[in-house]
Amino acid sequence: MMADTDWDALDDETFRREVADFFRTEYPEEIRFPAHFLRWAQCRDWYRKLYAKGFAAPAWPREWGGMGLSPGKLLAFIEEQEKHGIARTPDMGITMLGPLLIRFGTEQQKREFLPPTLRGEYIWCQGYSEPNAGSDLASLRTEAVLDGDEYVITGSKIWTSFAMDATHMFLLVRTDKQAKKQEGISFMLVDMKSPGITVRPIRNLNGSEHFAEVFLDQVRTPARWLVGQPNQGWTIAKALLGFERISIGSPKLSQTGLQRLERIVQARGLTADAAFMDRFTQLKLNVADLTSAYGRFAEIVKRGGTLGPDVSLLKIFASETFQRITELTLEAGGDAGAIKGEVPFGDAAIDILSPFYNARPSTIYGGSNEIQRNIIAKSVLNLPG
What we know:
This protein is α+β, with helices and mostly antiparallel strands.
């Protein structure tokens, strides 16, 4: 079956078998169950296989080259990814920008950016957070000034995932300094090869460079790369944050972490420890609930609906469940939990510390969980304050 297959028309059993067979036979063994985010050079060949098969964009509509999967099949696809240790690629163009352009972009923008993004020719990073604008994103200071048929952008972004490999960036800029904070922001696209862009990697606790600072000094971008109307970027930003939170809210990390933990449990004979198994079973139930909740929000996206503020629940649940899994994994590993890199457990080699470190910032990026709870209190529960 090739890229023109109507995957959603297959019965569930046939679809899952097709996906599982592909992941089992075609995925490179040397990057199966990676402990770190992979750089583009490490997973580029795999992405090309995904694209050739038609698996690159599971949630995109078929008219733009996606699989057009229903929520049920999308969850099955994710489950098989996790079961077979499939790494995340630099996928912000697929999971975040693509759905946003399909909804808000002009026809010219869709034609210009969606096909090369799908082919893996354009790799995207997100320019949202700034040194003084993280959870309070509307305080951003990066400025864009219209000069003829171009915008000139000056400022900086921080905690920019995949910036080292990105060919393009989607970012928020201030286009009206006199307007209220949320009303003077626009959403733009920028070529990362443009003069005036400097990328400085940020090394994290486990030694990887997943994040970066990006400095923009009089960077020019075509005015036609403005998405939506000038000064209306906050509406688009909220929609994109919804896509980000459902992406962060995916059960993928927790499912993989649970598999890693289960291997250690079996290897160390912890099934006889009733107190430990009670905590382990609770985490399994949490992951099952997370998977179900993710399916509900995925259904909204599939129908073309707008994600409401309640999607913050998904982000909180997913990130905190992942943290608890890595904490119990560290405990289950015993003394081996203090060793950096892969440690043998039975017939498996497992890296305990890297996922533990990676889980620490998961409650911060995409909007800290404290801010998410404020959003739920104010916009979902209508509590005073």
